Amino acid sequence: MNMKKIMKALSLLVAGVLVLVCFAGCTGNGDTGESSNAAAASNTQPQSKVEQIKAKGELVMLTNATFPPFEYTKGTEVVGVDVDIANEIAKELGVKLVVQDMEFDLIVDYIKAGRGDIGAAGMTITDERKEQVDFSNEYITSTQYVIVPAGTDTKSYQLDGKVIGVQEGTTGDVYYASEPKVIKAKEVKKYKSAIDAANDMLLGRVDCVIIDELPAKKITEKSAGKMICYDPGYDPESYAITIQKGNEDFVEVVNKVLTRLKDEGKIDEYVVNHS
C-alpha cells in the first residue's frame, strides 16, 4: 500500500516536471524565434551604396595615373582633375578619399565587381561600357588627337599604313587604331600608358600615337620640342565617372557634386591648375 502511494507520488512528480519543461521550452523557443526573426529581418535589409561608403569612412577611387592632366603622379601622390573632383565627392559624403592606381583596362571590371566605389580616369562614355557599369553625367568633352615627331607635316599626314601606338583599352585603341573601318593601320602596338607609347615613337618603334586631346597636349609640351600633336577631326566624346550598376542613390550624389562644380566653374579651374 505504501509502495503504491510512493509510486503514484513519483508519477505525479515526473509528470509535473515534464509539463514545466515543455512550457519553458515552448516559451523560450517562441522568444528566441521572434528575436531571431527580428534580427534576420534587420540583417536582410541591405545598406545603400551611400550608407556603405559612409559606414567604412572612405571613398575608393580607381584610376590610372598616366593620363595628365586628369590623373598623374606628383612625387608619390596621385593628383589631377579627376582626383580634385573625387575629393569633392568625398567631402559631400563626409568621408576621406582613397586613390588606387591601376591599369586602365581593369577599371571597369573592378567597378562592376564592386572592388572600388568610383572609376575616374578620363573615362569616355561608350555603349559597351554602359553594359558593364553605370555612368554619372558627363563633365568634360574631349576628342582624339594624334602625336607625331616634330617636323611632321600634319596637314598631309595619313594614318593608314602606319604603326600606331595606343594606350590599351582607351577609345583611341578600341574605336580608332584597332578599327579597320576607321584606320587601316599596318600594326597597332598597345601600351599601359600613352607616355610609354610616345617615348617608343621617339625611338622609332611606332610612327605615331593616338590619345585624348589634353593628355596629348600635355605629353607634347613636356617633350622638349621633340613631338607635336594635331586634331585629325574625329567625333567628340564625353568623360564621366563609372559606378557599379544598381546604385542610383550614389549616382545622384555624384551628379549633384558634378553639377555644382560645373556651375561654379571649378572643373575648368582644375584643368587649368593641372595643365
Please, could you describe this protein's structure?
The protein is elongated. The chain has two domains: 49-141 and 238-273, D-Maltodextrin-Binding Protein, domain 2 (3-Layer(aba) Sandwich), CATH 3.40.190; 144-235, D-Maltodextrin-Binding Protein, domain 2 (3-Layer(aba) Sandwich), CATH 3.40.190.10. A five-stranded mixed beta sheet has the order 11-10-12-9-13. 44% of the residues lie in helices and 21% in strands. The termini are far apart. The protein has ten helices and 15 strands. It has 275 residues and is α/β, with parallel strands linked by helices. The longest helix is centred in the first third of the chain and has 42 residues, at 2-43.
Question: Keywords, please?
Answer:
alpha/beta, D-Maltodextrin-Binding Protein, domain 2, 2 domains, five-stranded mixed β-sheet, three-stranded parallel β-sheet, 15 strands
What is the rounded distance between the termini?
110 Å
What value does the Rg take, in angstroms?
Answer: 31 Å
Question: What is the averaged pLDDT score?
Answer: 88
- Write the CATH architecture name of the largest domain: 3-Layer(aba) Sandwich
Per CATH, the class of the largest domain reads: Alpha Beta
